[in-house]
Amino acid sequence: MAKSHVSMTVNGKPAEALVEPRTLLIHFLREQLNLTGPHIGCDTSHCGACTVDLDGRSVKSCTMFAVQANGADIRTIEGMAAADGTLHVLQDAFREMHGLQCGFCTPGMIMRAHRLLEENRNPSEEEIRFGISGNLCRCTGYQNIVKAIQYAAAKMNGVPFKEAAE
Amino acid sequence: MIPGSFAYHRPTSVNDAIRLLVDLGEEARPLAGGHSLIPMMKLRLATPEHLVDLAGIADLKGIRTEGGEIVIGAMTTQHEIVGSNVLAEKTPILREASLLIADPQVRYMGTLGGNVANGDPGNDMPAVMMCLGASYQLVGNSGERTIPAREFYQGVYLTALKPGEILANVRISVPAAGHGFAYEKLKRKIGDYATAAAAVVLVMSGGTVAACSIGLTNVADTPLWAEEAARIVTGSTLDAATVKRATAAAEAITSPASDGRGPAHYRTKMAGVMLARALASAKARAR
Fold first, then answer.
1. Which fold, B180-285?
2. Which residues of chain B make contact with A149, given a CB cutoff of 8 A?
3. pLDDT, average across residues A28-45
4. Among positive and negative, which fits the CA dihedral B150, B154, B158, B163?
5. Is A68 close to B53, i.e. CB distance below 8 A?
6. Amino acid A69: pLDDT
7. A127 near B CB under 8 A
8. Residue B7: which of A1, A44, A58 has the nearest Cβ?
9. Is residue A134 predicted with pLDDT exceeding 70?
10. Taking the model in full, what pTM does it have?
11. Do B106 and A43 touch (CB under 8 A)?
12. How far apart are CA A5 and CA B19, in angstroms?
């Protein structure tokens, strides 16, 4: 099958390649661009480990062809920290609040949380839980993931983080 | 999982899309949000030789009002439906139903057109559209035609869409101001299809139901318009005896499959339970 030319912006840098139309975006990111932060978990659009930010939307890159992303502006977990290595506030929050155990879901969780906070700077706990409902953590560490997102929201809003009583 | 090979086409007009679908014939499939088709392709349950991506067609996007009608382009996403102020004001049942579809990531991609035109009885919007009395504008080689949602569904993945035809938009007559509405969906978890779900739109007048329409999801090979159940509640105060008769009438038209969501008789009962809840919620919201 003839290959298609795609060009997109990934983590602020231009990326161009020839791809088979059937190439999934997750395979393109991982195997052609060597961005192995987005993970392949369930491979059936349930778990959210492959979540990336695409033109202001959180998408599951296992359920999208690279050709559909032609011209798009994409951000993966690799594009979150600053060039000097300073962690993004969400990355720092996941570290501070122990928002990960095995870490497999973390890149998808952070990319989803990023878009959630872009759309809603001060979400309630319920809004956070609903907002990340397309991301599964098989360690079931949701408590601290929610806490990490609350912590990041507080930092971004410049207000003190108040931990809810457990 | 890697899908079979296909050629990718991205037309920028409805006419170009139709021409491609007609010229390429049976081996071509239109691609909307892809969240039903791509999983099927990854499992090789679908192996189209050509995909005609409708994402580049501006005419298929957007929500607008035209007189007393709301027109929603087929490529409008569930996320856009959730965020629409026009829909929140005129037809809030759409937002309620959209939020019960899949998960946030899927709603950013999944489209109204894909949801209603795919013919999957598990999809939520078809019953909502039947409930609202919506109509679908279809475009094909020989021009446009309009078909009521209530006449569109023929079987599992079988609809009135003809080869080479696509759904361009969905038209909804705006329900009366102050109408009550509810979409009640029983599901096992986020992202699941309904065990059973019920859509209700009703108008209350002086404590009685002046008009009512009911749709049911995933309890038959097609979405169902529960005409008899709606007729039973119309004119009533939604007293317990009437609701019982209405839910029995709704249950009587279901024929669900026994599957992981439960045995058929359970799903039929749940259709009745969802309807009773939706009626109560719609009544409470009516002004």
1. Enolase-like; domain 1 (3.30.390)
2. none
3. 97
4. negative
5. yes
6. 98
7. no
8. A1
9. yes
10. 0.96
11. no
12. 23
Q: Is the pLDDT of residue A111 over 90?
A: yes
Give the model's confidence band at B27: pLDDT under 50 very low, under 70 low, under 90 confident, else very high. Answer: very high
Instruction: List, as one string, the DSSP characters of A135-154.
Output: ---TT--HHHHHHHHHHHHH
| Residue B250 per-residue DSSP state | H
Summarize the confidence of residues B93-114 as an average pLDDT: 98
Q: B58-173: which CATH topology? A: 3.30.465
What distance in Å separates the CA atoms of residue A76 and residue A52, rounded to the nearest whole number? Answer: 5
**Facing A45 at nearest CB: one of B2, B10, B106:** B106
Q: Which residues of chain A are within 8 Å of residue B5 when distances are taken between CB atoms?
A: 1, 20-22
pLDDT at A1 over 80: no
pLDDT in tens, B144-154: 999 999 999 99
Asked if B199 and B116 count as a contact pair (C-beta separation under 8 A), the reply is no
Say yes or no for a CB contact (<8 Å) between B38 and A21. no
- Whether residue B211 lies within 8 A of chain A, CB to CB, comes out as no
Q: Which residues of A touch B50 (CB under 8 A)?
A: none
CATH 3.30.43.10, applies to B7-56:
yes
Question: Any CB–CB contact under 8 A between B40 and chain A?
Answer: no
Q: Mind telling me how many Å the CA of B83 is from chain A's nearest CA? A: 11
Query: Is B131 within 8 Å of B202 (Cβ atoms)?
Result: no
Burial class of residue B221 (count of CB atoms within 10 Å of its CB; 0-12, 13-18, 19+): middle
C-alpha distance from residue A112 to each of A47, A119, A158, B135, B195 (Å): 12, 11, 21, 35, 28
Task: Calculate mean pLDDT across residues A145-157.
Answer: 98
Computed over every residue of chain B, the mean pLDDT equals: 97
Give pLDDT, residue A163: 79
Token pair in block for residue B162: 């003809």
Among B42, B78, B96, B105, pick the best mutation site for testing chain A contact (most A Cβ within 10 A). B105
The predicted pLDDT at position A166 comes to 59
**pLDDT tier at B259 (50, 70, 90 boundaries)?**
very high
Q: Does A67 touch chain B (CB under 8 A)?
A: yes
Mapped onto helix, strand or coil, the DSSP state of residue B139 is strand
Q: Is the pLDDT of residue A5 over 70?
A: yes
Mean pLDDT to the nearest integer, B198-202: 98
Residue-range domains of chain A with CATH: 4-79 (3.10.20.30), 89-157 (1.10.150.120)
In this complex, do B7 and A20 lie within 8 Å of one another by their Cβ atoms?
Answer: no
